Structures are given as structure tokens and as C-alpha cells.
Amino acid sequence: MVTKQKQEKALSTPNERIFKLSLWQPPSTAMHRAGLAGLYMSLKHLTPEKGKVIDWELTPDSITLKWQCSDRQALSWLLANTYQIDEYHIQGLIKIPALGNISSSVQVGIHQGILNTFLQHGKSRTTEKVSKTVKLELGEDNVLELKYQAVQRYNYQDLGALKLYDKNDDFLPQIRIIKWVYPNASEKHNALGEKTKLQESPEGFISLLFAPIACSYYQVKSRLKLSKYRWALIIPHVNNLEFFAKIRQTEGFQTVSYEKFFASGIEDASLHYLMTAVGAKTADKQKLSSCEVWAFGDVPWSKQQKTNTARQTIQFDAKIIQIYEEVFYNYLNNGIKFGKNGSYISVSFGREIATENLVKGLPWYYGLHNILKFNTEVFAQLNYEKKNLHNTKEAMIEKGLTDKNATLFSDAVTWQLYLQLGEVAGNTSSNHPNFDRVKTKILMNIRKCRNQSDFSKLQNLVFGTPTTAQNPFLEEIELGAFYLWARENWQDCLSLMTLAIVGYKNPWKTERTATILEKKGRKRPEYLSDDESEDEFDESDTNEPENEDSEADEMADIPMTF
User: Fold this and answer.
1) Could you give the CA distance from residue 212 to residue 220 in angstroms, rounded to a whole number?
2) Three-state DSSP class for 266?
3) By the 8 A CB rule, do 347 and 263 touch?
4) Scanning 61, 238, 307, 460, which has the fewest C-beta atoms within 10 Å of its C-beta?
5) How far apart, in whole angstroms, are the C-alpha atoms of residue 255 and residue 394?
6) Which residues 6+ apart lie within 8 Å of 121 measured at CB?
7) For 172-191, what is the HEC assignment?
8) Which residues on neighbouring strands pair with residue 236, listed in sequence order?
9) Quick one: DSSP state of residue 76?
10) What's the CA dihedral at 545, 268, 354, 227 to 10 degrees?
11) Environment class of 478 (CB within 10 Å of its CB; exposed 0-12, middle 13-18, buried 19+)
12) CA quadruple 432, 435, 440, 441: dihedral, nearest 10
């Protein structure tokens, strides 16, 4: 703690301290640039206090700090006015005034995110022993009751036990960087000692201290990566401090509902972030050209805190963001659900698959058939989203975003399934024909398919009974070329088959395919005009698997073969 005598002596020192920080000043990592953006936002918020302890100059790509007191006094003043604790609104939450007038949901989301990424270790914060509860409004009538860890102090307020200053309370020439300043920054092995310790100049260290302000956070519920992905830390690639500060304080970052802080995977988190920050319509890369996403999750060798398990850079692409916003975000949606243990946030499994493929430049349904290799709980979750998957398929086709052969194959499989289910219904005297038997038989054969030879046998099973002569979608096309395409793209076709079965809907009940059938001279079945009770074909399962709160633990033994 600085004594009164030292403060007075520092204030009377005639030598002015000047620190210039630039976006392009080495080391110019994404985290350093994000930190500089956070500092910019903090100083803009502190404009009425400018010159009292610290003076500064701001440009779109640099910040110059000036003071005539000691470095300790200047930094302490800046941190005290940047990182605080809410004592009135929601007690015990991290409070960052520079973020502006954020909603309760946003404040809780940021609090949870910082504690699970930057401030994971118990020594980096002091929390209350008993969790507190807050009620968050989600939509018009939905309320989520959430438990959170209230903090009494955290390292960004007092810098913990970092050794920063010399005997005059000025910065050391090099400052050691530890995990809470730069997540997962640590020496590689104790035996290597000083050789692997990370150090920063005072300018670099100051930048890093403000990174949590500019970063964004998502809680991840991945069914492909399980506990390996728990949290996503989004680090923006800032290339203009002024532009970014305006983006970070827009409505999309300040008033969003709490469920928007959940993602199905790190690709989903990244695309949602870029959609919120830039959007597909503006397509202004000057605002934000890309971002990094870091996954934090559980690994066997680190039980006490989450480890950085993946890193990925996502480039801004207007077309990709448009697909995400108009299709995946709307049709494969997250939301609040109500289970035995109360309300919880549910994320879309389909969106996890689709966004991972979208970022990789693959068809959105690619690898869907591999889900059959998982256990029944995982497939049940995919099956729960059958209606959403069907609507996503149709939206992608209508927008011309699905290959023509893939659309033809999907429609042809759907028609074959329609005929096979019709035969079952015609041969059953009961009012509840066993449609699942037909679907399960095909799905099991998809699961066994390992090569092109297996796929050819599967094609015969699907298209052989009834024969393709009865399939209107295969009329007036070159069947030889079509089957050659299917054989060359057999893995894609396996996924299309899986999608057609899981997201099955009577082709007469889908406007696009019904129009094609009528143009082909097919007559709409009479029963469809009066009887709309054919739910066995469409949505036989309407209940989502519950126990979302403990799903990661229950799914820990699922083999990750996707």
C-alpha cells in the first residue's frame, strides 16, 4: 500500500511519465489489441476525470498516457475506476462502467464469463461461500432463476501479488505475465525455470489488463466435444479503436437476453459474435475483419480449473454470416426449456453440426450420419430437432445454397420413404402402424456403411423397393450420371439419407415438393385435404431429453467419433 508521504512525493515529481501504446506495437497479439480497445473504452468513459490523475491522448490506433505521479498511483487510480463490484443492482457481480448501461442479463453473462476464463483460479478472486440467486427475464413471460458466485474482490482491482514496481513505485523494465493476465500463459516446466517465463514491457502489460472489457463470452454446451468445450472466449481482431468502441456499446451487446450467451460450439459462438458485431448487411471489414475463439474445458491432467483446449480464427465472410443469421440462427434456435429441475437454457445440436461445417466450407449436413455411431441419448437429441432440421433443409434449398444433385437425392429418398411408410400403413389393420421399423432398418444400414460397395447395397435397399420407376423426382434425368454422382459423393449421401429420415415430412405437406409433384402430374392424396393427423410421419417425438443441467456428466463416456 502506498503511504501518504510517498504519494505526496510522487505528485511533486517534476518528471512526467509518458507511455505510448499502439495497435501495431510489438507484441501485437489479438489479446493485446483487445486490451488496448478495452483501455480506450475505459478512458472514454473517464473523460470527465481527464487530467486529474492521468492525462491521455486517443487516436483510432493508439493511446498515449501521461502522469506526474508514481506508476503505482496512476495504475491504481485507473483500475479502481475501471473494475468495480456491484453493490446495489445485483450484489457481488463484476461491474465495468466502461461498458455502459448494460442489462442484468448481459452483466450476469460477462461476470460468469470472466470468472470462467480469466479469473478461474481461486487465488485470482475472493467469492462468497454461499451462492446468490438472481431472476432474469427471458422474453415476455419466461423467468430464469440462476445461481451465481458473488465476488468480494478480484485481481483486476488490486493486481494480486504481481511484482510490478521498483523501490520508487515505478514499473519494472519487464513484468512477469501469469495466467489470469493472459489465460494459459505459464512456464512450460518448473525445471526450465526462467527460460519459459513470459514477460512484458509496461506498455504491453497495461494493454493486457483491459482485455476482459473488449472480449466476449459464451457458455458452450457441445454434444460433439462434451466437457472439452465448456466456455468460449471471443477475442476480437481490433484494427480501429474508435470503431470497435462504438460496436461494443451497441444495443446488440448491451441488452441481449441471457440465452444469447449460450452456444452449441466455438464456431456457433464466433458466428453469433460476428453477426452481432458487424452483421451480414453492413459487410464493413473496417469495423471487424475477424476474431479468435478460445475454448476452455476439462482435461484429465487439470482438475482444478479449465484448460484452453482449442483455438481458432474465424474470418468475417458476409455470405457465411448471412447464412448463419437467416437460416441457422432462426431455424436451429436455442431457447428456454422447462424440466423436472426447473427452467434451463437449451442449445441446438443441429446448429453445432451446421456451424462447424459452415466454417469449414462443407455442406451444412456433412457428417450427420456419423451421429448414428454415438449412443442413443445423443441421437435422441438430434431426433428431437427433426422439425427444425427439416425447415433448415428447405430454407437452404429455397435460397439456392444446396447442390442440385444433393437436393434431388434428398427429395428422391424422401419419396421412397413416403412409399415404404404408405405400404406399412396399408398392410396394418391397427390405427398405429410401426413406421419406426422402416426408418430404423435404413438407419442401421447407414450406420454399417463403410465404403462405396456398402453404399451401393444401401442404395438398392432404399431405391429398389419400390422401384425408382415410381419416383417422380428421378423422372426426366440421366439416372446413370445421377447414380455416379451419388457413388462419388457417398458420404454426403449418407448424411442426406440420415437427414431425410430424421427430418422426414410427408412430401405432400412440404410446399416446395408438393409443387414439384403436382407439376409431374401427381394428384394430392384425398386424405390430406381433410385429415391432418398424420403426425406419425412428421413429429412423433415432441419431448426434448431432460436433465440439461447434468447432461455433460451423463454424456462423459460418449465416444467422440464425429
Assistant:
1) 18
2) helix
3) yes
4) 460
5) 32
6) 179, 180, 304, 305
7) CCCEECCCCCCCCCCCCCHH
8) 291
9) H
10) -50
11) exposed
12) 120
CB neighbour list of residue 504: distance below 8 Å, 6 or more residues apart? 386, 390, 414, 417, 439, 537, 538
C-alpha cell at 121: 483460479
Which of the 8 DSSP states describes residue 522?
Answer: P
Query: Residue 507: which region, alpha, beta or left (left: phi > 0; alpha: psi -120 to 50)?
Result: alpha
In this structure, how many other beta carbons lie within 10 angstroms of the beta carbon of residue 41? 25
Measured distance CA(293)–CA(266) in Å, rounded: 7
Residue 383 half-sphere exposure toward CB, CA atoms < 13 A: 20
Kindly list the domain boundaries of the chain, sorted by start residue.
395-538
- What cell numbers appear for 109 in the block? 453473462
In one-letter notation, the amino acid at residue 285 is K
Strands of 55-59's sheet in order across: 17-22, 62-67, 55-59
Q: Which amino acid is at 514?
A: A
Count CA within 13 A, CB hemisphere, residue 265.
20
Cα four-point dihedral sign 263, 264, 269, 275: negative
C-alpha–C-alpha distance, residues 238 and 11, integer Å: 35
Reading the chain (562 residues) residue by residue, the pLDDT tens digits are: 444 444 444 444 458 999 999 999 888 899 999 999 999 999 999 999 999 999 999 999 999 999 999 999 999 999 999 999 999 889 999 999 999 999 999 999 999 999 999 999 888 999 998 889 998 887 667 788 888 999 999 999 989 778 999 999 999 999 998 889 998 776 555 555 555 578 999 999 999 999 999 999 999 999 999 999 999 999 999 999 999 999 988 877 888 888 889 999 999 999 999 999 887 555 455 568 899 999 999 888 777 788 889 999 999 898 999 999 999 999 998 877 777 777 788 899 999 999 999 999 999 999 999 988 877 888 888 888 999 999 999 999 999 999 999 999 999 999 999 988 888 877 776 777 778 888 888 899 999 999 999 998 888 888 876 566 678 998 888 988 998 999 999 999 999 999 999 999 999 999 999 999 999 988 888 776 544 444 443 444 445 555 444 333 322 222 222 2
Dihedral of alpha carbons 295, 299, 305, 308, sign: negative
Grid coordinates representing 526 are 384425398
pTM, two decimal places: 0.88
- Residue 379 grid coordinates: 441421437
User: Sheet holding 262-263: strands in order across?
Assistant: 262-263, 216-220, 231-236, 290-299, 302-315
The size of the chain, in residues, is: 562
Amino acid residing at 351:
R
